[in-house]
Amino acid sequence: MPFEKACKKKTKLRLWLNGMSSSGKTYSALLIAKGLGGKIALIDSEAGRGHLYGDKFDYDVFGLTAPFTPEKYIAAIKEAEAAGYNVIIVDSASHEWVEVLGIKTKLDERPGSNQFTNWASPTRRHNSFIESVIQSPYHVIVTSRVKRDWMLVEENGKHVPKCVGLANVQREGIEYEFTTEFRIEQNHHATAIKDNTRLFLDKGDFLITEDTGKQLIAWLNEGKEEIIKQPVKA
Fold first, then answer.
1. Domain positions in the chain
2. Rounded to 5 degrees, what are φ and ψ at 188?
3. Which distant-in-sequence residues (6+ apart) come within 8 Å of 111 by Cβ?
4. Which class for 58: exposed (0-12), middle (13-18), buried (19 or more C-beta within 10 A)?
5. Contact of 193 with 182, CB cutoff 8 Å
6. How far apart are CA 19 and CA 200, in angstroms?
7. 8 A C-beta contact, residue 132 and residue 74
8. Between β-strands 40-44 and 60-63, what pairing exists: parallel, antiparallel or unpaired?
9. Gap between the Cα atoms of 202 and 138, Å rounded
10. What is the pLDDT of residue 226?
């Protein structure tokens, strides 16, 4: 395949929002989705909490139930694509990863099993879920939980306890698959951890609003028209 001159092309958003409980991940995802424009689908694994903002936003909910296998997420994403939604919110992907870890644990419990090679099947299934996000011809926003802990921090010369976010409840390295990653803190302010758009890296802490989505869609729509592959029907 010959080289071609690099040029900015129109593209679709791959946004990862992560934060602790009550940081506002779902609400922030809906604000951004509204700013992006079009029909919004929310894939809910949070026991029906995806309906909480039905009085503030116009969107449809697809409820997932346990077990939260990668295949269930993939099927829901394909369903949203087939229905023609412009923005797909996966809220949250942490349940998928916890399920994958559970699958691995069950394989390890088999007599004579190899804990290293046992990763093959769960990894393949997880990668299929990630691939469904990457290859979607529509905007995709994925949320995930963050483990939290309490630490003593110095404020005004005194050490006070503060709740802080630690590791994401998802597979290490998942951030490489996304255009932009926002970490949302308990005060509902976000920080751009990764941002290929370069719109938010120097903003410091900021509050996500509908305008955040409008800024993103303006950047995404800049450049040469990209040929979008239609999803393959299962």
1. 14-220
2. 75, 5
3. none
4. exposed
5. yes
6. 17
7. yes
8. parallel
9. 27
10. 64
Domain 14-220, CATH: 3.40.50.300
Distance CA 35, CA 52 (A): 19
Q: What is the pLDDT of residues 128-176, one digit of tens each?
A: 999 999 999 999 999 999 986 555 567 777 766 655 546 788 999 999 9
Express each pLDDT in 20-74 by its tens digit: 888 999 999 999 999 999 999 999 999 999 999 999 999 999 999 999 999 999 9
Q: Among candidates 203, 198, 194, 189, which has minimal Cα distance to 216? A: 198
Q: Dihedrals φ, ψ of 220, to 5°?
A: -65, -30
Tokens of 144: 């995930």
Q: Residue 184 — φ and ψ, nearest 5°?
A: -105, 130
Closest by CA position to 91, among listed 140, 124, 37, 163: 140
What are phi and psi for residue 89, nearest 5 degrees?
A: -105, 125
Which residues touch 176 (CB under 8 Å, ≥6 apart)?
none
